[in-house]
Amino acid sequence: MPLTLIRLAVGPVNGTVHHGAMLGTVAVTACATHTPDLHPVSDLTAHTPCQSCVRALLVLTTAPHPGGEPGVRPAAGTGRGGAAHRPIPGHLLAYCGSPLDTRPVTTGRRCSMCTRLSDALDALHRRAGELTPPPGEPCHGDDTLLWAPLARGNLVTGHRRNSVTGKGFCERPLSGPHPGAVNECAPCRRHWEEAEVARQMFTLPLIQDQARTWDQNRVDIFEDRASTLDAGDAYTLSGCAERHYVVAVADRAGESHTDLLVYLPAEERLSDLRLRRDRLITVRRPPR
Questions:
Q1: SS3 letters for 63-104?
Q2: Spatial CA neighbour of 100 closest among 65, 136, 133, 135
Q3: Sign of the C-alpha dihedral, residues 52, 80, 277, 90?
Q4: How much is the pTM?
């Protein structure tokens, strides 16, 4: 029977949280952290995520880039002769966390940290057998999903997230999606409704007209990371066959994700999306 990948930590509400499985009373983590005190914890806690486990989850949940990927790449800025890093599927991010170059590598020298996480994942599979990972980050889903506040003092009330600021529409810092929220923050709801009226009346008709004539114009097609996207681009990525037309971008320095407002022609709607900055995408860009 497949084992489910779960969150594991020493403390029940804070500390470092890992991903792994329980083999009887023994916890086995994706990053090979060993301690007898690890036990399962719930999703909505104030733990700090283990970054090695975060990358391991990306390895387990992201579909490979449809254009194919080399087995190894150099780190960004090191040139083709740099150490060979193992790329996470669908990302320009190495197993060790280094941002990667779009070009293949020529050296045979392998990154030891990439090898370490790869070996840890292999060991987890050997010990746990078949694993059921949590769902990967959805490409686009429910824009009405409420978020939990950062302090987690009130988990009953959910907030609408403003992709421009990264906070709630009420300006409260947020920690993550909270589908179990019972109530909705009233200021968030009011400001979100005002923004949504403007989108539906002005932004949506304009981008629909642009998308209808898109294929009549010449575009440059290349592969790059999500953080390079600009308004006016279109892109595709692994795990989603739909073309995304970029209306606006909010790429805040120091954050792991890029926030996008995109037009989805198959659904005829605008959607707020979050992509990891190092996600590997195929970009279509009009000449500038």
A1: CCCCCCCCCCECECCCCCCCCEECECCCECEECCCCEECCCC
A2: 65
A3: negative
A4: 0.86
CA separation, residue 30 to residues 60, 94, 127, 174, 196 (Å): 10, 16, 11, 27, 41
Q: What is the pLDDT of residues 214-266, one digit of tens each?
A: 888 899 999 999 999 999 999 999 988 899 999 999 887 778 889 999 999 99
CA–CA separation, 87 and 39 (whole Å) = 30
204: tokens are: 């949506």
Distance CA 244, CA 253 (A): 23
The H or E element that residue 199 is part of is none
Tokens 């440059």 found at? 220
Please say whether the beta carbons of 132 and 3 come within 8 A. yes
Q: Cα–Cα distance between 282 and 72 in angstroms, integer?
A: 19
Q: How far is CA 133 from the centre of its chain?
A: 15
Nearest of 189, 181, 187 to residue 158 by alpha carbon = 181
